[in-house]
Design brief:
Structural class: alpha+beta
Helix content: 10-25%
Radius of gyration: 25 Å
Number of domains: 2
Largest sheet: 6 strands, mixed
CATH topology of the largest domain: Rossmann fold
CATH class of the largest domain: Alpha Beta
Order of helices and strands: EEEHEEEHHHEHEHEEHHEEEEEEEEEE
Number of strands: 20
Mean pLDDT: 93
Bound molecules: adenosine-5'-triphosphate
CATH architecture of the largest domain: 3-Layer(aba) Sandwich
Shape: elongated
Oligomer: single chain
CATH superfamily of the largest domain: P-loop containing nucleotide triphosphate hydrolases
Length: 342
Amino acid sequence: MATLQVNNVHSSYQNNVVLKGLDLTVEKGEIVALLGPSGCGKTTLLRAIAGLQSISAGEIRINGKAVVSDKEFIASEKRGIGMIFQDYALFPHLTVAENILFGVKLAGKTNKAAKLDNMLALVKLDGLGGRYPHELSGGQQQRVSIARALAYEPEVLLLDEPFSNIDAKVRREMMLEIRNILKSHNISAVFVTHSKDEAFVFADKLALFNQGKIAQCGDAECLYLRPQDKYVADFLGASNYLEATVIAAKRVSTLIGDIDSEQQLKAEIGSDVELLLRPQQLQIASSESGTGEVIERRFLGSICQYLVSIGNKTLDIHSEYLDIKIGEKVAITTTPHSLVLL
Ligand SMILES: Nc1ncnc2c1ncn2[C@@H]1O[C@H](COP(=O)(O)OP(=O)(O)OP(=O)(O)O)[C@@H](O)[C@H]1O
């Protein structure tokens, strides 16, 4: 049974409809990112799951039990939810130990002490139980907020932009560390972010929002390599679109020549479509008779980014050939893959 099910949820602020019929499933132990630009409704959904935002239609279930529907409303503190906020929300006048044990219902000092030791070890803060939040770094405070949320043994952990206050240099390491903690305890989590890079590192599954709806949900590879529309394609990374005509079950004709697909195309022979090509799915090589011309070049380390003009198009190409100069004529080819037609 899925840990969390969101079925056809609608929600509004006054007359402003913010969630317009959302469906989402989070399996046991799965980490799902709610991803999308500012104002698309990610936090509203997180708050609705937590019981802090009302819904006007639909239902939310945790471990099969409705926590909100047209007939039910279970209070926030009874939903088995742990929350981690962007600003950590620690109690400043309580020590690390007191923060972590706040709200933990365990009988006996020994049990509480064991729980505390366990949690401190889990988030690598052994020996720091007596400190106050202001005596810790941002990353350490974030770890206390995680320990506090986990001490309560939630069914679902909700994280609202938890990494945005962490120094960019340590952010990735911190994300992997927390991901490992969640994975090793098989904790289901929903994580709000507007950063696809954070979603790629932290989540198993991405739910990409577009104006109160989920445009596409799936793992990062699926959304990046098989986006169902341009909104998804563009949000996940740089894209080139080429006008193309399907000329066989696995072949299209384009400005840069005929291109073969590794898999059968999802369009009829003869139809006009747009072909999505990621910058690294295109390659260039110097060629006197080439039809493209390099108009910009940016060295990025192991690859070079070239802007190549061909016909009335400019293509963004990441090539492993590093020595091509601006103004050179180039032949453009594609690396073999399953073509995406939009
Ligand atoms: N308390 C509120 N009262 C009225 N409107 C609100 C309120 N909170 C959010 N909204 C509106 O609801 C919409 C969705 O907001 P929400 O915070 O869910 O977006 P978000 O995707 O989480 O954005 P961000 O990434 O900026 O946090 C926005 O248009 C916002 O202006």
